[in-house]
């Protein structure tokens, strides 16, 4: 059998096999085992089968398949020519297999480039015999044709262009060729190939037809099928169509009227598409074309802004107006004026009754248009500001004046935007009004009644805006502005009037970036005046200090701010200022380094800051050992930490080796509270060090020392020691010899817990376990230890142990990656996997009445302690097995157990949001328990005191929040039965003693009442 | 479509001028930025003298019920100022339809009575506003749903602000007529749209 016969048998059964057969034929051709002439002859019988069109089509498909498998050198020039003539000749008489013919031609073209004559002939044959393409019902056939035409227009532009130039009849045929195409994949190609004539040819005579041929598809409403293999989205089609519409200025007379017509559509999506198309046209068309339509466009677009329907439509319209303005600048003076004039007129009219929705919109228009180009800003300013300030002077109403200033601020904002791209922007027009504006706003900011918050804020905003612009204000004017703002920051003590002061601080900080000299010369000294060396009332200085520290977020004045703080601190120390004041100054320093903008070097804080600021503080501690106040020790530690931790190992080692001389012995020598205070300094200090810096012997001796403090029942509070132990173990101890290290320092957990462990030993054990679990490098050991801790829960009574479980995963500002600690990403998952099944099992098997009455509540408290730190995604898969235990947690009644309820409610909240189906099973029990958790007062006398839970306010609020989610998240039929009960029992919650709870109660009750309304709608 | 509104271009009050809890209780000092610098959330026993244990219980519990925060005018204002106007996508607060000054809480008239009265005066955006009744109804419904039953709710149109004030006041004051209005399906849907923006 010949290959073609085989192919015809296989093609309907096994596509891949058929392709393989064709490839085989191609190989034989290449190896010269088969002659082209023989191959063609073998086709003859089938390709000419008069009775079976289907078979003819398949034969062409075979040919196309063979040709596309050939390598370029396989056929001679003559053969290729013969083949293309053969295929084209067939098309003239027979359209069966047209898609395959097009594919065969594309394959031939890949084998060797055509001359222009062939290219023209191909296109002509197709246009003559296959017009219109829509006659072919199969998308794939049309697709092949479109691909062929696309290829011709991509590679043989000149040849095809010539056809258009020589034959006036060419374009109409070509344009209507694709008419009626609906398939998105084909349309993507059609839109793209039509752009060649649209952008490159002179199509004036056919502009309307060509335009209509694509605009017919506007707006695109295509929704891709869910399993679309080609992944074409509506947006892809919209983008290509928009490019077509915007491609040729000759389209303008047709495009703009139709687009504006569609802008009146009631569909927001259509309006969106129209606005984007208008923007594209404004960018794509010639300036003189836009000039013809500029005012018409303005008249239409302004409505979208003045009467906002959807915010984004207004934004897009503003963009379009700005683009038109930019285009008009290219046109020339007169044209620009003609466009701007109606805008100015309209906006001035709206200013007259400011502040209204429309005066606000006018401000937005002015900003958008003015920011498009400097000459536009200049004209807008000249056209608006005289009227604006005339209105301002003529009105006594503060509200009116505020509305006007808001518009003025929009214009200055346009200038400051422009200044970024045009550094030597001409601001003369604005300068002409700068004195008026400055006086008005200074007066507004300083003298207006404090209740006029928005007026003062607008003035403040405007002042900052003006000061930022170069050349608009003189130096002395800028000083007036800085003085006024500083004065409010320092002296406005009246509270409760909005955010004037915090906004003033923010503005002053911004100005430190734009006019650093003025802030440094005027504001900083004013601050220092308010900060005496020894204040009579230290707490009065706090707000000044806070504001001062906030200024450090601007890098340009950072160094000055920290230096002033340091000097002030030294002076305060020297003159023995109250400890509280010294602490505040230290906190200010800490704030600047933590949240300010210190100079950086290779991505880390410059090491000079340590030498200049932290080191002297450490030296003070060393000198004053035993006499330094505890609060100062801790904050000094934190300052060291923040500056030292990003430094390199070399720098750290130098610092550390120097301090090794005194720190260990100092700890040893200190006693009691002083010891713990000093430990807190050491804690932050060691937290900064890189693991490789520390000396192993020092670490072991530190551990021993701290362990001794930690287990000593008379040492009082020892949290610092516990945290230090956790830090040292996590960061410096070698995981390979962890157990022996623990034993050597006598902090091995099983030893700690054996024989009636003291509370101190148990706390220490938790600290050790926390360190190991966070580190994640001693898997077996931490698993064993965690088990030991879980066993403690079984023997009841010790509520404190259960509560300690919350500490294991609690976030900790010491054990962090920034502090070079080892923080395993799997720690939470591991603890969950090990502890939670154990606890759930225990809860199930324990009854309240058994021997240890509190052990069940202990388990529940431990559970919530672990769960509260877990991301919801970890516990989500186990939700259904967790639910019973979680519900029982909500039943806990004693006051001390309340700590377990809040995290449990948080879990129910997440579950209601993400997995309402799981919660739904428990609807009845959850509703009852949540209602119990909402109750604020104990049931009066009748009931036994202590049994009715008096929930804390956060628990009540959270319970109401969960309860409010139920009608929204669960199926209607699941919740409706409880509606009456819930609505009734929520009434007392509306009278809850706490305002925040009442707010939640209102929300919750509204949600449940809403169920009723839903029922009415369904009837 | 804007032509059929009674007032298409109303004056809007700037959000920072609206009454808020912060403005009405000037004494509450917000936490300073330094207070957040030394966080104290480390729970239970690993805490040390540096991190105050009070924070663990979220400043909650014991003083809870002793320290009652009474329902005041500001709270009533917060309940109704977020209702949206049936004509504009704006809140009644920002349109000045309800103001703090026009809300009064009147304590029980006699020592035996527990019933206090909340009186709200509504100011329509124009004196000819045809939707005045609906706005009044919305305010009334919202307060009936959100305030505990020991409050009697009295919603009226502010004197001299509407041509139809007397008629509307009569309607709003009449329990039967309010109840009847809430049976009217189209009225219910208008009101629930207005209340949809309430938090």
Automatic annotation (TrEMBL), chain A:
Annotated compartments: Nucleus
Presence of keyword DNA damage: yes
MMS19 N-terminal domain location: 40-307
Gene Ontology biological-process annotations: DNA repair; iron-sulfur cluster assembly; protein maturation
Domain of life of the source: Eukaryota
Start and end residues of each MMS19 C-terminal domain: 544-967
Keywords: DNA damage, DNA repair, Nucleus, Repeat
One Gene Ontology term, aspect cellular component: nucleus
Entry keyword annotation includes Repeat: yes
Pfam families tied to this protein: MMS19_C (PF12460), MMS19_N (PF14500)
Protein task: Key component of the cytosolic iron-sulfur protein assembly (CIA) complex, a multiprotein complex that mediates the incorporation of iron-sulfur cluster into apoproteins specifically involved in DNA metabolism and genomic integrity. In the CIA complex, MMS19 acts as an adapter between early-acting CIA components and a subset of cellular target iron-sulfur proteins.
PANTHER family assigned: DNA REPAIR/TRANSCRIPTION PROTEIN MET18/MMS19 (PTHR12891), MMS19 NUCLEOTIDE EXCISION REPAIR PROTEIN HOMOLOG (PTHR12891:SF0)
The family this protein is said to belong to: Belongs to the MET18/MMS19 family.
Name of the featured protein: MMS19 nucleotide excision repair protein
Taxonomic source organism: Acrodontium crateriforme
TrEMBL record, chain B:
Spans annotated as Disordered: 1-26
Lineage: Eukaryota, Fungi, Dikarya, Ascomycota, Pezizomycotina
The keyword RNA-binding belongs to this UniProt entry's keyword annotation: no
Family: Belongs to the MIP18 family.
UniProt source species: Acrodontium crateriforme
Xref: InterPro entries: FSCA_dom_sf (IPR034904), MIP18 (IPR039796), MIP18-like (IPR002744)
GO terms for biological process, alphabetical: chromosome segregation; protein maturation
Pfam families: FeS_assembly_P
Keywords: Chromosome partition
Protein name, UniProt field: MIP18 family protein
Domain MIP18 family-like: 73-149
